[in-house]
């Protein structure tokens, strides 16, 4: 099955900014773009049109307006639209089986407070099995510098962050951009020290060289697969969220991994992804880990 990029639109300036980002990404990757709008008729408690036909016509009109706006800005793009008869979360998650990635919009609130992701967006990111990009919008314009690097967080073993690194390198290659790979580390708790763990650190020359070696080894297969992508490595003491956010100002895209986990109220996106989605000034790609 051919792949495509799917962007959710709901008529808001934020979703149109996300669709515009998705259009450019589709052109970078040589993929078609599908604009999807979720609509299911339900009686309303406010004095608006109640009959299904009228509401459906409004839903199709919303899609046509979004399609016209994107087609005008990106005339060479293979573009289609689809009205999905379901709730937004279920509809977009149902569309991911044919998607290279899903793109959703987020409402901007300024550089200090970040942006409100919204309950729908958080549920989509938590439940998706494909990468999801949340595009921050400021007054309907998506916030992405015209140049810059693709910033990606690496943690644990090479396998732990393989999905995020692969997405970051593939995106950078498609855009002709560089990758900035970041590994955050912290001093282990006293009870975590053991002869075996400290021997590994001693063999590497200390804790910092050990972390640098771990990052370097995780990047080896991706440097080999994408030899033309420039790469810089950065290891810093601190929490992963703080370290990534400190480097996100000059990024075209921030890429973070998300482990599949469930809490008492459903799937969770994890603390690092949560911080990135709410505070990063650039678009954020959340990649499900294996």
UniProtKB/TrEMBL annotation:
Residues covered by the UspA domain: 1-136, 150-288
Domain of life: Bacteria
Record's protein name: Universal stress protein UspA
One family name in Pfam for this protein: Usp
Family membership noted in the UniProt record: Belongs to the universal stress protein A family.
